[in-house]
Amino acid sequence: MAAPALRVLQLTHDYGSVRSLADVSFDAPPGKIGLVGANGAGKSTLIKLSLGLLDPTSGSIEVMGADPGARTRVGYMPEASALPLDQKAADFVTYTAQLAGLPSRDARRRASETLYLVGLDEERFRFIGDFSTGMQQRVKLAQAIVHDPQLVFLDEPTAGLDPEGRESMLGLIRRLGDFGTSVVFSTHIITDIERTCDWVVLLDGGTLLRSSPLEELGSHGVVRLELHDHSEEVTRLLRARGADVKVEGDVLHIRSFDEIYSAIQSSVAQAGAGIHLLEEANVTLEEAFFVPSSEPPPLPGSRP
Questions:
Q1: What is the spatial distance between Cα 142 and Cα 20, in angstroms, rounded to a whole number?
Q2: pLDDT tens figures, 233-243
Q3: What are the angstrom distances between the C-alpha of 8 and each of 22, 64, 266?
C-alpha cells in the first residue's frame, strides 16, 4: 500500500505561550486533500511543519513517507504575495526549478511547460509586477509544481481572486491529479473543497475535528421519509424504537441506524400511514463539518 500523503501523530506546536496545534493525529492518503478551518485554526502551521519550516513542540509528521523538509518531493504555494515583481515570470520559475535541483537547461524547459500549463505561455516574458492578481497566483502555482513534486501544498490559492480567476484556479487544482501530483489545498471556503478534493481534514482552534473521505461526510447518515398522512404517529413510533427524527410537515428526516428500513416499515404499517417518498438524503459538507467527529452527522438544515 502507498504511504499516506500526510501521517500526523500527536502533533503539537506552540508559539511561545500560544498553542497553535494541540495533539493532532490523522492519516491522509495521496490524492486531493482539503485542509479546512477558520483563520487561526492551525492550517498554515500544519503546512509549515510539513515543509520542515517549523519544528514541532511534540509529536511527529511524515510527508509521502519521509521526514519533513524533503524539498524535491514537495512544492509550496504560500498565501502571502512574495513574488519578485522586477523579474520576468519565465526567469523566476526557471530559478525556482534550479533551486529544486534541476539543471539549467531542464529548468528552463520545465518552466516553459509549467507556465503553459497554468495559462501564462504568452505572458511568460512579462515582468511579474505587471501581472494582475490572478496571473500572480498562477505564477505562484507554477513555481510550486515546476519540479514535478509528489505533493504540493496550496495555502489559500483562491485568495483575492475575482469569480473568473477563482474558477480558473479551481480548475487547475483539479487537473493536478491528472499528472499524479497529490495536493493539500488549505482554505476556509468549504465550497471550494467540495468542488476539488476527495479527502477532507478539518481543524478548529488547533484541534482535529475530522479526517475523512469527502463522500463519506456529505452523503450518508440520513433517510428522508415523506408521508401522505399520520406523520405524528409514525414519528412517535420511530422515536420509541430509538430513532432520531426531525419533522418538517409530513416529511421525516431520520438518522440512519441498523435496521432503519425495518423500523420504518413497521412504524408506517402500525400507524396505517401511506408513503409518498423514501430515499437517502444528503447532508451538506458544512453541516457535516461542524459536528465533532465522535458525533454522527447532523440532520439536514440543523445546526448544533
A1: 29
A2: 999 999 999 88
A3: 12, 11, 46
pLDDT tens for 47-94 read 999 999 999 999 999 999 888 877 778 999 999 888 999 999 999 999
Q: Which of 150, 147, 186 is nearest to 66 (CA)?
A: 150
Judged against a pLDDT cut of 80, whether residue 298 lies above it is answered with: no
Distance CA(154)–CA(159), nearest Å, equals 11
**How many Cβ atoms are within 10 Å of 262's Cβ, its own excluded?**
10
Cell of 245: 427524527
